[in-house]
Design brief:
Largest sheet: 5 strands, antiparallel
Structural class: mainly beta
Strand order of the largest sheet: 4-3-2-1-5
Strand content: over 45%
Protein name: Protein AGENET DOMAIN (AGD)-CONTAINING P1 isoform X2
Radius of gyration: 26 Å
């Protein structure tokens, strides 16, 4: 534990919620007792924003500033780095080299995967026994067996993170097959494997679908990426909850949706974002939604968006610099409303027009956002400039890198851009507003479009502006 003098520039580790594990540049103001110092941050402001934050810090959370290492060579996968993020340095490792001196970095403390430019990264160093040691030198001090094990575990984590593992399918095995036909995208149907007909392809016979003349069960070829084992049965005795993800039995298959209203008599209103529909279902025609991830069934858990409720959703200006044209909506119309709260900026949430309030304002009832007490769907006032009709989309068979898309995430549509096409109809998508890369299923994507002057205009292929 070092001794620090007044005016010395050092780094301090923060342990407060939202900053845990990050290191920030500070100056020592003075010693305030045994192994404690008053420090002034160089990048963090006090609550009033008028001056830099000052606080008392234990000496165990202070270290000298690491020596600068000029890295003229690109980083490589698994390299340990510090990333400049939210006014501090965060430890992580290079998950993927994206090209153009851009990198996808997995942050150690939050397990987030974010994109950084080369200039926003520095080689990671450890402060050990009053000396700075590079991460590579630090790792060399460990035993070779320990290092090999750690490296192996890390590679497995990177390979499997968020990806669907393809199981082996045998003859007469009962499975579920995903449909990609227009109007049925994202729905799953029970089937039996008849035989393998080449690499990653199978002939299946459906248990609930029949040929056009209804004479026999429908048989067709299916790709392994569109096949999964049947999920384990979960007997749901208690009632489903608001905004819980479920599979609903509809048109001889299972469709994923969200509980948007709890009705009397063990009935529910379910919202389907793939078709923008609301339908009523009995309790026993629903099952808890499960995801097939890394060869295991995982019960879906969708984080509920915590949205700050405002009296109204502000006025917006059009993209041409003038005032955007307001669209008129009728009562009961299904729409999408834009959120501009911090952390939700640029996202669009499905809603229904409750009534026209005059002066270009409407009362909305959201389909995937609920009140603070979680007893009902959120209702609030919104300006017409923050409302648009749902886009009419033609779902492509595949998206390609650089395609602009909307991704269904946390109950809303978020604009992003396809980075990579993965196995199993999955993609990595980059979200500029949050600087994140997430893995998204094909059925949770739609082509991005712009609502301009009362018309939908397809986005041009290229980097998000």
């Amino acid at each position: 534990m070092g001794t620090f003098s007044e005016g010395m520039s050092v780094e301090v580790k923060r342990d407060k919620e939202g900053f845990r594990g990050s290191w920030h540049n500070v100056v020592i103001v003075k010693s305030v007792g045994y192994d404690k110092y008053l420090v002034e941050y160089q990048t963090l402001k006090a609550v009033n924003g008028s001056q830099f934050l000052k606080e008392e810090v234990d000496a165990s959370c202070i270290r000298p500033c690491p020596p600068e290492i000029h890295s003229f060579h690109p980083f490589e996968p698994l390299d340990k780095v510090d990333a400049w993020f939210i006014d501090g340095w965060w430890e992580g490792h290079i998950r993927e080299v994206l090209g153009g001196l851009m990198y996808e970095v997995c942050l150690l403390s939050t397990e987030e995967e974010l994109v950084f430019e080369h200039s926003m990264l520095r080689p990671h160093q450890e402060w050990i026994k009053e000396k700075w040691v590079t991460a590579r030198e630090f790792d060399m001090t460990r035993s070779s067996s320990d290092m090999n094990l750690k490296s192996k575990d890390l590679k497995i984590k990177i390979k499997c993170s968020g990806k669907t593992s393809e199981p082996k399918f045998s003859k007469e095995m009962r499975v579920e097959v995903k449909s990609d036909e227009e109007g049925y995208k994202g729905s799953w149907y029970a089937a039996v494997i008849i035989e393998s007909i080449g690499q990653h392809k199978f002939l299946v016979e459906y248990l609930t679908l029949r040929t056009e003349d209804e004479s026999e069960p429908l048989k067709e070829m299916a790709d392994a990426s569109d096949i999964r084992p049947c999920p384990p049965v979960i007997d749901r005795i208690d009632r489903f909850k608001m905004l819980e993800e479920v599979d609903a039995w509809y048109n001889d298959g299972w469709w994923v949706g969200i509980i948007c209203k709890i009705l009397d008599g063990l009935k529910y209103m379910v919202y389907f974002w793939t078709t923008n529909e609301e339908l009523v279902f009995d309790h026993f025609t629903l099952r808890p939604h499960q995801e097939w991830i890394d060869g295991k069934w995982v019960i879906a858990f969708r984080k509920k968006p915590k949205v700050q409720v405002k009296p109204g959703l502000g006025k917006l200006k059009g993209q041409n610099g003038g005032v955007a044209r307001r669209t008129k909506f009728s009562v009961g119309a299904k729409v999408e409303a834009k959120r501009d709260e911090e952390s939700y900026r640029g996202s669009w949430y499905p809603a229904t027009i409750v009534r026209h309030l005059g002066n270009g304002k409407y009362l909305l009832r959201y389909q995937t956002l609920e009140t603070d007490d979680e007893t009902d769907l959120l209702t609030e006032e919104a300006d017409a400039l923050c409302i648009r009709p749902p886009p009419v989309t033609q779902q492509p068979d595949i998206f390609w890198p650089l395609d602009e898309v909307d991704a269904w995430y946390n109950g809303g549509w978020w604009a992003g851009q396809v980075c990579k096409v993965l196995d199993g109809s999955n993609y990595t998508v980059y979200f500029k507003m949050s600087n994140e890369i997430l893995e998204i299923q094909h059925s949770d994507l739609r082509p991005h479009q712009h609502w301009l002057d009362g018309k939908w205009i397809a986005a041009k292929r290229g980097w998000i502006s």
